[in-house]
């Protein structure tokens, strides 16, 4: 994977990274004005990323000695139209003090490389409409907005009610 000066390296997440990954997740929630929204735990991350049948994956930028400076957490999607998988980027986060060092570009490049290597035609994610720095960053990399599509989500009581309709 990509290497940076002074022993900083981009690599696949591995057991032992959970605390650093969770710190990035919490920092992202704080940035997105949802500081109390994170229910995830180190144990949950261990099971999700490193259990017997992982359903999510992560790349990290490691500053050495487990200093996780940035993360990209992703999972597979499937398009019935193309008949192929793709990658959904759930979270991309670079700690503020490490921004503008190329970590975000390197993480997205690693995900694009993963798509190409596996023959996946899509790398997708969402961005909050008020996050102009991220929107500009993504636009500069060639990411296009999917103007016709809006994300929908069912959670909480609505999810319970929908489940009971069957």
Task: Please give a structural write-up.
Keywords: Acyltransferase, Transferase. This is GNAT family N-acetyltransferase. The structure is a single chain. Helix 1 (18-31) packs across helix 2 (42-50). A five-stranded mixed β-sheet has the order 1-2-3-4-5, sandwiched between helices. The chain has 166 residues and is α+β, with helices and mostly antiparallel strands. It contains five helices and five strands. The protein has helices at 18-31, 42-50, 103-118, 132-140, 156-165; strands spanning 9-12, 57-62, 68-79, 84-94, 123-124. The chain has one domain: Gcn5-related N-acetyltransferase (GNAT) (Aminopeptidase), CATH 3.40.630. 35% of the residues lie in helices and 21% in strands.
Summarize the entry for a quick read:
By secondary structure, the protein is α+β, with helices and mostly antiparallel strands. The protein contains five helices and five strands, in the order βααβββαβαα. It has one domain (9-165): Gcn5-related N-acetyltransferase (GNAT) (Aminopeptidase, 3-Layer(aba) Sandwich), CATH 3.40.630.
């Amino acid at each position: 994977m990509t290497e940076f000066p002074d022993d900083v390296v981009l690599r696949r997440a591995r057991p032992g990274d959970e605390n650093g990954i969770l710190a990035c997740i919490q920092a992202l929630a704080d940035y997105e004005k949802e500081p109390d929204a994170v229910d995830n735990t180190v144990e949950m991350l261990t099971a999700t990323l490193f259990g017997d049948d992982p359903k999510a994956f992560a790349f990290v930028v490691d500053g050495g000695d487990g200093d996780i400076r940035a993360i990209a957490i992703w999972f597979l999607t499937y398009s019935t139209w193309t008949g192929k998988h793709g990658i959904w980027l759930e979270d991309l986060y670079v700690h503020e003090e490490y921004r503008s060092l190329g970590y975000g570009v390197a993480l997205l490049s690693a995900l694009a490389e993963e798509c190409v290597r596996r023959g996946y035609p899509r790398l997708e994610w969402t961005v909050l409409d008020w996050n102009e720095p991220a929107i500009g960053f993504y636009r500069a990399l060639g990411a296009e907005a999917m103007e016709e599509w809006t994300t929908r989500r069912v959670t909480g009581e609505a999810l319970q009610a929908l489940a009971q309709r069957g």
